[in-house]
Model the fold of this input.
Amino acid sequence: MSEESRGAIEVVRPPGGRRFRFVLFDFDGTLSLLREGWADVMIPMMVEHLEALGAGLPAGRLRAMMAEDVALTTGMPTMYQMIRFAQRVAEFGGTPLDPKAYKAEYNRRLMGHIARRREALASGAAAPDTVLLAGARAMLEALAARPLVLLLASGTDEPYVRQEARLLDVARYFGPHVYGALDDYEASGKKQVIERVLAAARADGRELLVFGDGFVEITSAKGAGGYAVGVASDEASGGGRVHPWKRERLLRAGADAIVADFAQHGPLLELLFPA
Ligand SMILES: [Mg+2]
Done:
């Protein structure tokens, strides 16, 4: 391994003698860049609602609070983020709407934000790989060539995840194992997906490898006994450098290793699947 490539992977705890059989990927920010900027849609929406209440704090303070709430719930079904927000509205003396209404408003705003990207993919004007994190396709191809079960799990509503995975031409790596948020959001979180898949296969948590850029997939992986690679992706640039804020949160969540993207898929595979 060259000095340069070693530098691209920050190893907190090496995987040791683990033999992985299941590899779970988060979708947004880990593989897909299609929803890049989602937090810049969600957080201002929250701040607008709180300002309209006369929350009494400067917009910068409200923004920082909401950014922290969103960071800690990133990766959970969107509904949880909206339930947390409804609690905030009540804390600030407002009467919250049904969290479903906040979620519908967020989806409407986000769809406006990403409509052009979706259309460009659907029409063929944009190549799928330009909307994937650097090296993601090569990493998926290499993993798919091994005797592994690949799983895709997202806090985004499942119909969107399926549609967007097809648009990005990555659905085929995951076969039946594409999981998104369902109306029964309490049963469709990543922790629940991991528990169900491991139980159905009578697998041990040590056989699980997880890649994610969110707090929740890392804590869910670690909770199950798995190995977690935090993808501290700088989504706006498509990869290439570690996003310091994400890195700090992923480490706090317990990530065993940190990468910026999958550009170093060769050394990463050597680390995770030593010969
Ligand atoms: Mg994500």
